[in-house]
Amino acid sequence: QSALTQPASVSGSPGQSITISCTGTASDIGFYDYVSWYQQHPGTAPKLIIYNVATRPSGVSTRFSGSKSGNTASLAISGLQSEDEATYYCCSYANDITFVFGTGTEVTVL
Amino acid sequence: QLQLQESGPGLVKPLETLSLTCSVSGDSIATSNYYWGWIRQAPGKGLEWIASVYYSGRANYNPSLKSRVTISVDKSKNQFSLELTSVTAADTAVYYCAREGRYKGYELKDDYFVMDVWGQGTTVTVSS
């Protein structure tokens, strides 16, 4: 099971919106609506920000939103803030057994 | 409030066995619909799901690591553990334990397949 493909980096100015893509296959993203997204600041554990493609856990900002089309999932961040500077990972359930993560995208706030 | 805490040696010699334990507090490990899993992150790299276990002992493994991994649960101690045999430098990583939802509801919105609560992670270095 190969890692899901994400762009290595995405940047934006404060207040702008950005989108991070996550491309998988018909065995993971394309088959299951179990895509999640995690935010990881340096030296800390990943934090869940989206699950089931587009559901935000309680307490997560509404500036984060998720979607999926075919084998590609996306995370959008609106009203970019300095605190959003982090690495973001997508994750999908796969093959009825495993979870597979994306390669990670480093978000820079200019 | 659910909390997970990893513990284990920070240094393991090549070809030896890496053993880690995750202590769960704030809830019982014998909770329906949740598995308990391990994820690792090599230095400067992405996340890799390793395995997860239900309180009954039923386990799921990453096929790429399955031959070297054993995951187990101790309900009496509210802990679960990971063993990784024949380690090499490639196994050097931060190891996280996490609660893993694995259940299907009556509707899609009730399905829950996600790692939602994570420990802080423990660094394991493989070196002689």
Question: Can you describe this structure?
Answer:
The complex is a heterodimer of chains A (110) and B (128). Chain A has 110 residues and is mainly β. Chain A is built from no helices and 9 strands. In chain A, the strands form 2 sheets. In chain A, strands 1, 3, 4, 7, 8 and 9 form a 6-stranded mixed sheet that branches. Chain A has a 3-stranded antiparallel sheet with strand order 2-6-5, with no helix packed on it. Chain B is mainly β. Chain B has strands at 3-7, 11-12, 18-25, 34-41, 47-53, 59-61, 69-74, 79-84, 93-103, 112-118, 122-126. In chain B, strands 2, 4, 5, 6, 9, 10 and 11 form a 7-stranded mixed sheet that branches. The N and C termini of chain B lie far apart (39 Å).
Q: Output mean pLDDT of chain A.
A: 97
Q: How would you sum up the major sheet of chain A?
A: 6 strands, mixed
Strand content of chain A: over 45%
User: What shape does the CA trace of chain A take?
Assistant: globular
Number of helices of chain A: 0
Per DSSP, what share of the residues of chain B sits in E-state strands of 2 or more residues?
over 45%
Report the largest inter-chain contact.
A-B, 27 and 24 residues
Give the number of DSSP strands of chain B. 11
Mean pLDDT rating of chain B: 96
- Kindly name the structural category of chain B: mainly beta
Terminal CA distance of chain A: 35 Å
CA gyration radius of chain B, whole angstroms? 15 Å
Our Rg estimate of chain A from Cα atoms comes to 13 Å
Shape of chain B: globular
What is the secondary structure topology, with strand pairs?
The complex is a heterodimer of chains A (110) and B (128).
Chain A (H helix, E strand, L loop, with lengths): L8 E4 L5 E6 L11 E6 L6 E4 L13 E6 L2 E6 L8 E9 L3 E4 L3 E5 L1
Parallel strand pairs in A: 1-9
Antiparallel strand pairs in A: 2-6, 3-4, 3-7, 5-6, 7-8, 7-9
Chain B lengths: L2 E5 L3 E2 L5 E8 L8 E8 L5 E7 L5 E3 L7 E6 L4 E6 L8 E11 L8 E7 L3 E5 L2
Parallel strand pairs in B: 2-11
Antiparallel strand pairs in B: 1-3, 3-8, 4-5, 4-9, 5-6, 7-8, 9-10, 9-11
